[in-house]
Amino acid sequence: LNFIRSSTHVNNRVSGDMLQRVRMILGSGAVRSCFHPGMVGFGDDFKFKHLFNELPKQEKVESKLNPGENFFISHEGLLLDYEDSLTRCEKKSDEDDAAKTWYNASTHMLWIGHRTRGLEDAHVEYFRGLYNPVGVKVGPGTTPEVLVKLVNRLNPKNEAGKIVLITRFGAEKVLKDLPNLVQAVKVAGLKVIWTCDPMHGNTYKTNTGLKTRDFNNVVKEIINTVGIHKKIGTRLNGLHLEMCGDDVTECVGGPEKLEETDLSRCFTSACDPRLNFEQSVAVAFAVGNALRAPEAKKIMSLPKVPSVQYGSIPGLTKPVSRLIFGTLFLSKVSEPFKLLDSIWSKGVNAFDTAAIYGQPEGSCEKILGEWIKSRNVNKGELVIITKGGCSGAESKWAARTSKAQILKDIEGSLGRLGVNTIDIYLLHRDDPSIPVSEIVDTMNELIKKGKLLSWGVSNWSLDRFKAAVDYAKSQDLVGPVVDSPQASLAKPAGPVWPGTTHMNAEREKYYTTKKNDVSVFAWEALAKGFMTGKWNQNDLASVEDKPYREKTLIKAYCTGSNFKRRQRAEYLAKEKGVPLHCIALAYLLNLQCEMFVLVGTSKLNHFNSNVGMFDVTLSTKECKWLNEGGELQA
């Protein structure tokens, strides 16, 4: 038998109903006679009672449940023949003249284990006919759908106090597996009592064959479980602990810092390892602190109905918005948080930044990191893309891709962003003098350390990119999964920044054949404004009078071929009733490669206008006509 003290508050409606249900069992004369007075309690050990009495008066909780009194027993209903022989049909109390009901008189609360809780199993059929509170062990492998069906089967009238869900996942799995189950039960409107068993999921064997548990993992599972319930808006009503008042040495850790070598000193359990007195008290205080902790700040999640489309990146399990917000100008925005809030509200979950962005350098990463923390952005949905391996304007953006430089850049970015892991890390420039093998090895080392999830490059030659992919494949390593060149309907006549690359027919063909392995992040997708109507033939005629940067852009984009492409895009924009730039962006999305479009702006209305590209439908013939010209056929 497991001796469990109810740790619920009697003023909690649901758990109060459970207590009333148990008291009704005790109130039945026939059932009460099955219990011996000596069956419950802590035996001759009065440490727990003494501890309670020593607490300051104001610390005590007024409750009918006092230490040493009102203890109830519970066990797993595994052997149906045994349970059936102790099943009684009795009135709910001696004074109750209502119809009789079925009790299991072998215990107060019977629980059903993982092995026997199949929906069509005989155990479930037996359990659902009992008046007793019924516990259900819930652990790894339990799906939300099955749990909801099981609770409904055991408690078809959805009576409060009837079902106790006992979660036991282990410290490493509870954060991953429990939230979906709690959410599903809440959404279904089921009246259940949530309890946590932090013991069984954290059991392991030492090298000497002794079963033990780590105190730290026990506490960790409890605290994480409390946090999950707080976030979802449910309540953890109780704990299942295996403990005793003796100074046994059966679990490692705790106030005494017991190690595995200490276990044999006083390991007296014939079955499962128990917390000793010191460890039990420490668990109680840890739980108390967790329950008193302030409510977690509400997580900012993506909208249920986004305005954008999503794609996938190798190495990431979460979707990535095909419209990526570029933060190059973020440090110049007067209210950057307001801008980022609005962009997120559209469903955009991918943010591109770099170690050299902003004045001073790194300020754009810092602003983005402060926004993530301030808004408590859901990191399970957020995709952070940042870049390093590139110096600033004073060095004309020269590459710095040695191992030491890459490590320095990544640590700096992690610090400014305030995160432990970067979703996608891009090397901003390339130094051909450094072998790709050295770079691939460095990036894989960082992946193993959890510093990043995937990596890619920006402004590398196609040959170097292929070489990195081939080397990684030959060594069974993670290769670059993203290439970020300049790409637009307007084709530049040459590099628009020192050391940059742009999309051409050869690249597009390679990206298309490698669609499942390589994604493309297109920057300057609107050709620095050319595909919004910026610049004309007069600007080209007076180009030598322009500042250096504008002169470079005009010479790159203001070509005869590009003016014709823009003219064709203007015609389609008029025919479809959409802005010119939406045609240009939709063209990129319709390329056969796995394309993502980077858009950077300091004005919200500009960004919102770009979202309109997802409303534009272009046929294959229209895309071909936009790029090459000729006759547009219906």
What does this structure look like?
Helices cover 36% and strands 14% of the residues. The chain has an eight-stranded parallel barrel. By secondary structure, it is α/β, with parallel strands linked by helices. The chain contains 21 helices and 21 strands. Helix 18 packs antiparallel against helix 21 (620-628). The relative contact order is 0.06.
Instruction: Give the tally of β-strands.
Output: 21
Number of helices: 21
Strand order of the largest sheet: 14-15-16-17-18-19-20-21
Q: Rg, please? A: 33 Å
**Averaging pLDDT over every residue, what do you get?**
86
Strand content: 5-15%
Q: What class would the helix/strand composition place it in?
A: alpha/beta
Gap between N and C termini: 79 Å
Proportion in helices? 25-40%
Q: For the report, how would you describe the main beta sheet? A: 8 strands, parallel, barrel
Shape: elongated
Which ranges are low-confidence, i.e. pLDDT below 50, for 5 or more consecutive residues?
Answer: 1-15, 21-49, 55-61
